[in-house]
Each structure stands twice: as C-alpha cells, then as structure tokens.
Specification:
heterodimer; A: about 575 residues; mainly alpha; Sodium/glucose cotransporter; two-stranded parallel ribbon; 21 helices; about 70% helix; B: mainly alpha; rod-shaped
C-alpha cells in the first residue's frame, strides 16, 4: 500500500516540525532550574495540562490500534474508553490527585518513597525507567516501519529524523515543551481526522446504513447480527463476541485493574497533572481530559468499523491482506487516509498521524528523564548536588534516553520476539500496581515491607498464572501455558484481563498480610497528606460549579453512563 | 510563565487554513475531489474551518496580551 504526498502535503508536515522545534526554542529561556525542566515549574493552566493528559496517551499505538480494534471487534472496543479510561480518570481526579499534588512529590516513585520506603520506590522507579525507554523505542520503530511502507522513506533516515526532532524540543524546553507540543498534536488529531470520519461515514450512507452493513460482518464470523454495533448486548458468554470475553472479566480486568492501574499510577500521564498551576487545576486536569476522551471513539473506533464494513462490501478488497488471508488491521487508518483525503487535507491527516507517534515518544522521554534524575540519579548515585547539576543531568538523560530508544527500535526491527517478551514482562510488573496505591492511599496501616512484598508477589502471581493459562490454538511459550495448560481462554485479551485480576488480587492480599505482620514504619504525622483519613479535605476555593472537580466528575460519569446505554 | 500557547497554536492553524483555502480555490473542480472526497472540495471547506479556528485562537491570545 502506498500514499502519495504532494508538495502542499510536505509543506504542511515541514511547517508542523518548524512549530514544534520553535516552541522548544521559545521555552528555552524559562528553563532556569530542575523544577522548570521536570515539572514545568508547576505553572501550566488546567486546559493545557488536560489536553496534554489525553495526548500523552494518544500515541500512534492508540490511534492505529483503536481503529484496528474497531475493525476487528466493532463497538465493543469502546469499553477501553467508557468502562476503562473515563471512570479511572474521574477516580484519579477526585481521590488520588490531592495526594500526588498535595504531597509535593516530584514523581510517582517519589510518592511511594514518602508513603512507604526506599526499596518500594527503587523497585518502581527502575522498572518504570526501563519500560519507558523501551516503549519509546517501540513507538519509534512502528513509525519508521509505517513510513517505509506507505511512502517508501528510508527506515534509518526516518528514525534519525524523528529522534532528532523529539530530542531538540525536549532538550530545550523539557516537560513544558512536551506538554505544549502535545496540545498542538491534540488539535492536529482532532482537526485532521474529523474530515476523514465525516467523509467515510457519508460514503457508507450514515450511521443507520453502517449498522446494516455491519450485520453481514458479524454473521459471516459466526456471531449474532448486532455484535459489531452493540457494546454490551453480547457479553454474557465469552463465545458470544469476537473479543472472546465475558462482562465480568471485562469490567474487573480491563476496567478496574488495568485501566485504574494505568491512568492512576502511570507517571507518564500523572506527570501532566502534576505540572498544573494549582491543586484545583491538577484535579481538573484528568476531568478536562475526560470530556473529549469520551467522544474519541467517534474519531478512532468508528473509522475502523466503517473500514471493515467497506472491506466486507467490496468482497474483501479494501484493506490490505496479511500473509494468512485476514485483513492487516493495523493499516486501517492509512488505508482510509489514502482513500478519502485528496492532496492538501491529506497533509493535515498525515501530519496528525506522524505527530501522534512523536508525542508518544516524547511523553515517554520526559517521564524517563524525570524518574532517572530524581528517583535514581539523585537518590542513589549523586546526592546533594546543586540544582543546576540536576538540570544538566535532565538534559543528559534526555539525550541518553533517546539514544537507548533508537537502540530499542533497531532491536525491535531485528528481533520481534524480544519485544513480545519484554511487553509480557511489563505486563507482569504493571498489573499489581494499582493495589499498592489503593492500599497506600486509603489504609494507613499498610507498611513499606507490605507494599514491597505485595508488588513482588503480584508480579510473580501474574507470571505463574501466565504459565498455567493458555489461549485456544495459541503456541505454548510466550503466549502462556509453559507450566501446563490448566486454564483455557477464548482469546488472548481475555487471558490478559484475567492475569491482571490475579496479579491485583495477589498484590492486595500479600500487602495486607505482610503489613499486619510487620511494624508500621511511618507515624500518623508522617503520613499526613499521603493517606486519605489523615489528610484534611481540599477546600473548594469558591469556584463556579464548572470548575469544581466533584461537579465536573459527576457530569463526566453521567455522560459516560449515557453513552454506554445508547450503544448498549 | 508568560507564554501563551494560543499564539503558536492559532498561528499554525491560521497558516494551514490559508494554505488549504487557497489550494482549494486553485484546484476547484479537479478530478481528485471525485475520486477521493465524494465530489466535495474538502480542501476549501475544511481550510475555512481551520482558518477560523486559528484566527479565534490568535484573537484570544492577543486580547489577553492587551489587558
């Protein structure tokens, strides 16, 4: 598959690069100390941190992946938003942000040190730092591979160019630069994809016609007619829907464990809220993000549903086919871009796609340089240096992080298995995290030893479960089952969600048991501002209702429930 | 921090809007609109949307600067 860009499309792309780098240069003079570089001096207004909050997560994996999933599974993909992300974002805003922002912790691992102890922080900081550079490398690899395929660009040149641009703007302007560029990217995605979705939907004849056209897609795959257009109606048994999962595994695994774990504890997103200019702005950040996020399925999932309807209608000739004869779902968005956007507007859509890859990488790099500098370098390698020294270190960590990312990109291009293996291990490490934070924030009796053992236990529990679980028809090994195939799942997704549930539960139980067996290592006085029952409630600062976190949170939840019911 | 993000944001989209609007005018009626965008001159129409968005952002930023 090929896309042909004209002169005007290239000009649009180049103008975007100039603005991105220009913002870096404009911000350089504000970077006076390490707080400016890593936390934007806690001075960013809520609408900016809010849009950056979604954008940091709106990397290409999200845009490409959600469209792919929309084609493959239909509207059930919306559970990632309306069950997963949104409730977690509301929870973060209302209940968790007061501790993150109020404790003045500079990173999520630092909060763990204040709440628990050094070893819990170390475990989290090191695993997080490794994960971010690898994710950034995977993002880079995916970008270069796609550009090579679509435009015939040189893989090496593409890696060098994107790594260089990200390096320049973060090196100069730190987190502020990343946040500002994420807002640019947010508008690029929305304004670049809106005409695409409009044209594609008009072409299939609107929503009602799309529903009719998705009926044969469902029936030809052996499911009930409405499976692709109803989000909940076919979730009683895993065999009723293409995701191969029942409602309990979905709500608990994806909703409660994985989404809360990601949105509430991943420093990549939480860092955006920590940069806000007040407690109220920090709490509003995830909520301002949640408002557009609720509607994002229309921008990223709907195109996938349209594409599969067209594909089916055109006798399986619309999407490119993979070697096994099934559509290459990852090419859904590029195929639609090539089909519906003429040169000119194509440049905007294409730049939006490229921007999402780069901001995915930038988000990881800024989270990495902060955790590296504060939680690893300052804590273990060079204590009590001047602030200027840490600022310098932050810049060096940026260079280092990007070089390692480039290395990882090449690793990914050479050894696909290593990347699958790493992502599997990341899954083991991430799944239990939310249990630790939940107990840490809401149970003052939780101890440092308890948290540390809980995290390790949860990770081991996940690995052990993975060894015993198995997806029908999958190979034994990296896909599970290496300790025997005791538990059989309908789909890999279902297996992953249940693994998360097991990891979370193990961590939760182990943390409680060990905490009760060990002595408290923090007094009530030390835990003030870190634990719910010991922290004075944040006062509402006489704001109008639409600026109050609780009111906004309720509004967001009502909207989400309504969307779930409409598309039930 | 005395740096209003709406300034570069508005400027960038105003430039994009202007480019697409002019390009849409120049290419009006060309075959690519039939083959791709259902006969709609999407460059012209969306160009105007982007231009308006960009100018509104610029306007807000400049208004704040004055006060």
């Amino acid at each position: 598959m090929q896309i042909h860009l004209g002169l005007i499309d290239y000009s649009i792309l180049i103008i975007y690069f100039l603005f991105v780098i220009g913002i870096g240069f404009a911000l350089k003079r504000y970077m006076k100390g390490s707080t400016d570089f890593f936390l934007s001096g806690r001075s960013i207004p809520a609408w900016v941190t809010g849009l950056a909050f979604i954008s940091a997560n709106l990397g290409a994996q999200e845009v490409i992946g959600m469209a792919a999933s929309g084609a493959k599974y239909g509207i059930m993909t919306s559970h990632f938003y309306w069950v997963g992300a949104i409730p977690a974002m509301v929870f973060l805003a209302i209940f968790m942000m007061p501790f993150y922002y109020g404790s003045k912790a500079r990173s999520v691992p630092e909060y763990l040190k204040m709440r628990f102890d050094e070893k819990t922080r170390g475990l989290n900081a090191i695993s997080f730092a490794v994960m971010t550079v690898f994710s950034s490398g995977i993002s880079l690899h995916a970008l270069a591979k796609l550009m090579e395929l679509l435009l015939g660009w040189n893989y090496n040149a593409c890696i060098a160019l994107s790594a260089f641009i990200v390096l320049v703007y973060i090196f100069l302007g730190g987190l502020t630069s990343a946040i500002y560029n994420e807002v640019l990217q947010f508008f690029m995605i929305v304004l670049g994809f809106a005409p695409l979705v409009f044209l594609a939907l008009k072409d299939v004849g609107g929503w009602a016609a799309l529903k009719t056209k998705l009926v044969p897609v469902a029936t030809s795959n052996g499911f009930a007619p409405g499976t692709w257009t109803q989000s909940w109606a076919h979730m009683n048994a895993p065999s009723d829907n293409p995701m191969g999962i029942g409602w309990f595994g979905m709500v608990m695994g994806l909703g409660f464990v994985l989404s809360f774990g990601y949105w509430c504890t991943d420093f990549l997103v939480v860092q955006r809220a920590m940069a806000a200019n007040s407690m109220s702005a920090a709490r509003r950040t995830p909520l301002i993000a949640a408002l557009p996020k609720m509607l994002f399925p229309a921008l990223v999932i709907l195109p996938g549903m349209i594409a599969i309807a067209i594909h089916h209608g055109e006798a399986n000739k619309f999407l490119p086919l993979g070697s096994d004869g099934t559509p290459d779902y990852n090419l859904t968005i590029p195929t639609l871009l090539a089909r519906y956007l003429p040169t000119g507007i194509l440049g905007v859509g294409f730049t939006a796609l490229m921007a999402s890859f780069m901001s995915g990488m930038a988000g990881n790099v800024t989270a990495f340089n902060t955790v590296w500098t504060y939680d690893i370098y300052q804590s273990y390698l060079a204590k009590n240096k001047s602030d200027t020294h840490y600022l310098w270190m932050g810049r060096m960590a940026t260079v280092f992080g990007i070089l390692v990312s480039v290395g990882c990109a090449y690793l990914a291009s050479k050894f696909n298995n290593i990347m699958d293996m790493l992502q599997l291990v990341f899954g083991f490490v991430n799944a239990p995290l939310f249990a630790t934070f939940l107990l840490g924030m809401f149970w003052r009796r939780a101890t440092g030893h308890g948290a540390f053992c809980g995290l390790l236990g949860g990770t081991l529990g996940a690995a052990f479960f993975h060894g015993l679980a198995h997806t029908q028809g999958a190979e034994i090994g990296i896909k599970g089952g290496w300790l025997g195939q005791k538990i059989v799942f309908q789909s890999e997704m279902s297996q992953n969600f249940w693994m998360a549930i097991i990891a979370w539960t193990t961590c939760f139980v182990v943390t409680i048991v060990i905490s009760i067996l060990t002595a408290r290592n923090k007094t009530d006085e030390e835990l003030k501002g870190l634990v719910y029952s010991l922290t004075p409630k944040p006062k509402s600062e006489n704001e109008p209702w639409y600026q109050q976190p609780v009111a906004l949170g309720i509004l967001v939840l009502i909207g989400t429930i309504a969307l779930n019911i409409i598309f039930w | 921090m005395n740096f209003d993000l709406r300034l570069p944001l508005g400027a960038m989209f105003a430039i994009y809007g202007l480019m697409l609007t002019l390009f849409g005018f120049a290419t009006n009626g060309q075959e690519m609109y039939q083959t791709h965008s259902l006969g709609i001159n999407v460059n012209l129409r969306w160009g105007i949307v982007l231009l308006v968005f960009g100018l509104v952002m610029l306007g807000l930023a400049l208004k704040r600067k004055k006060s």
